[in-house]
Amino acid sequence: MVCHRCILSVKQVLERNGIAPVQVDLGEVTLADEPTPDQQRSLRADLEALGFELLDDQRSQLIEKVKSFLIEKVQSGALPEDFSLVKAVGAAFQRDYSAISKLFSEVEGITLEHFFILQKTEKVKEWLAYNELSLSEIAFRLGYNSVAYLSSQFKKVTGMTPSAFKANHTGRRKALDRVHFH
């Protein structure tokens, strides 16, 4: 599930600062009018207090849009087996994938591909923790061509097999926009 509480929190901060949003989506806000410098300072402080940040440079905005796009793709739970990160990102942002990928790595410190794998791993954890789907259903919904491949990738990221994770419930889920490899 995409974080609706995050969207609600941002709306509340905007309203408290006297800023009327036209639209608030995950990672992006559309405003009717440019906030005053005082409103911007107050907004920045209020958002940071909630763990958000105000992005005003285009590079960071693009990366946040790419992250939101990938999070939404994974959270939909309907990735086709032939899903191509290169094609999907290139088409969605109408830019050369390699340029977006390079920028993503510079800004985030991990590759776009690894970020996508981490997102899928978090979705697998969610479904395993809530016992919602079998491993083969999870593999199908996240576009894996086999359960073995999903299990291998899951173990590389988490250090345990999906069945061990399910048995232990020791994996702690992270906020989706904070998933990084350390």
Short description:
By secondary structure, the chain is mainly alpha-helical.
Q: If you had to describe this structure to a student in words, what would you say it looks like?
A:
Helices cover 60% and strands 5% of the residues. By secondary structure, it is mainly α. The chain has two domains: 1-54, no CATH class; 57-182, Orthogonal Bundle (Arc Repressor Mutant, subunit A), CATH 1.10.10.60. It has a two-stranded antiparallel ribbon. It is globular.
Measured by DSSP, the beta-strand proportion falls in: under 5%
Number of β-strand runs:
2
Quaternary state, please?
single chain
Indicate the percent of residues in helices: 55-70%
Shape: globular
Indicate the CATH topology of the largest domain: Arc Repressor Mutant, subunit A
Radius of gyration computed on alpha carbons: 18 Å
List low-confidence stretches.
none
Strand order of the largest sheet: 1-2
Distance between the termini: 24 Å
SSE string, helices as H and strands as E: HEEHHHHHHHH
Structural class: mainly alpha
Summarize the SSE layout with pairings.
Layout: H1 4-16, E1 21-25, E2 28-31, H2 37-49, H3 58-76, H4 85-93, H5 97-108, H6 112-129, H7 135-141, H8 147-158, H9 162-168
Antiparallel strand pairs: 1-2
Helix pairs in contact: 3-5, 3-6, 6-8, 6-9
